[in-house]
Specification:
There is one protein chain. The chain is mainly α. The protein contains 7 helices and no strands. Helix 2 runs antiparallel to helix 7 and helix 6 packs antiparallel against helix 7. It is elongated and about 55 Å long.
Length: 187
C-alpha cells in the first residue's frame, strides 16, 4: 500500500483519530481528578481504554490495509482483554504491561510518521506522540517503585498529552481530506 493511500484512508476517517484523542484526554482527566482511585479501578480504566483504542486501530488498519496499525491495535485489544480476565493483577505486573505496550505503540507511531513524512505535514506531532509513549514505557520500567498514585498521575499526564496530539493530528487529517476532495471535484 502506498503512503498516499494510507494518508487518504486516515483523512477519510479523521474522526476516529479525533475520538481516540478525546478518549485519551478523558482518561487522563479522570486519572488526575480522581487520584484516590484504587489500583483495581485503574486496572479497569486501563483495560477499557486499551480495548477501545485497540479496536479503533484495528478498524483503521484493516480499512487502509496498514498492517502496522492492525498489529498495534491487536496489542491494545490483548492488553485490554488480559486486564479484564485477571483484574487482580499486581500493580507491578500492570506497570510492566503498560510499559511494554507504551513502548511498542510508540515505536510503531514513530515508524508510521517517518514512513509518511513526505505525505503529511505536521508528522512531527505523530513522532512526538510516539516519543512520549516510548518515554512513558522507559520511565515505568526504570522507576517501578514510586507507588500507585504516581503511576496514575504519569499515565494521566501521558494520556492528556497523547490525546491532545491525536486531536491536532485528526484536524490536520481532516484538512488533508478536504483538500483531496476539492482536488478531485475541481474541473
Amino acid at each position: 500500500m502506498s503512503p498516499f493511500s494510507a494518508v487518504r484512508t486516515l483523512a477519510e476517517h479523521w474522526w476516529v483519530v479525533l475520538l481516540r484523542g478525546i478518549l485519551a484526554i478523558l482518561f487522563g482527566v479522570l486519572a488526575w481528578t480522581r487520584p484516590g482511585l484504587t489500583v483495581a479501578v485503574l486496572v479497569l480504566f486501563f483495560g477499557a481504554y486499551a480495548l477501545v483504542d485497540g479496536i479503533f486501530e484495528v478498524i483503521a488498519g484493516l480499512r487502509g490495509k496498514w498492517w502496522g496499525l492492525v498489529f498495534t491495535g491487536v496489542l491494545g485489544i490483548a492488553a485490554g482483554v488480559v486486564t479484564f480476565m485477571w483484574p487482580h493483577i499486581t500493580a507491578l505486573a500492570l506497570l510492566w504491561l503498560i510499559a511494554f505496550w507504551a513502548i511498542v505503540v510508540g515505536i510503531m507511531q514513530i515508524s508510521a510518521a517517518i514512513r509518511l513524512r513526505r505525505e503529511v505535514q505536521g508528522e512531527w506531532l505523530w513522532i512526538v506522540s510516539g516519543i512520549l509513549s516510548v518515554l512513558l514505557g522507559i520511565i515505568l520500567i526504570a522507576r517501578p517503585g514510586p507507588g500507585a498514585l504516581s503511576l496514575i498521575w504519569v499515565i494521566g499526564l501521558f494520556a492528556i498529552m497523547w490525546g491532545f496530539l491525536l486531536c491536532i493530528l485528526a484536524f490536520k487529517l481532516k484538512g488533508i481530506g478536504s483538500r483531496a476532495a476539492l482536488a478531485t471535484t475541481a474541473p
